[in-house]
């Protein structure tokens, strides 16, 4: 079971922050939404650089970045190093795109809730009424 905030947390929040909204809507931890916000301020950062800014262990930052990549909230690019080898640099998904994703997710959720409201009381469509 995840400790990520959910829609109920969002509905019950009197004045949710953008970070809280992101965590609830995308089902991520608040430290992951904080990583997104810091990454917006430091585009092209490496895990090591982000760990320093966030004051978190590199392995924790790496896990946060993996989640952000899975949720399409960040991009990763490989940069070759002069002495050989490479390093990954991370950039946050542009804010307007992230806002669009938030709006779309909330609209989809609202449609689902409106549908459940309309189904309520209809014996042919209301699952609560059809259960023994």
TrEMBL record:
InterPro entries assigned: Tscrpt_reg_TrmB_N, WH-like_DNA-bd_sf, WH_DNA-bd_sf
Q: Which residues form a coiled coil?
A: none
Per UniProt, residues of the Transcription regulator TrmB N-terminal domain are 25-94
One Pfam assignment: TrmB
Q: Source organism's superkingdom?
A: Archaea
Q: What is this protein called?
A: MarR family transcriptional regulator
Q: What's the source species' lineage?
A: Archaea, Methanobacteriati, Methanobacteriota, Stenosarchaea group, Halobacteria
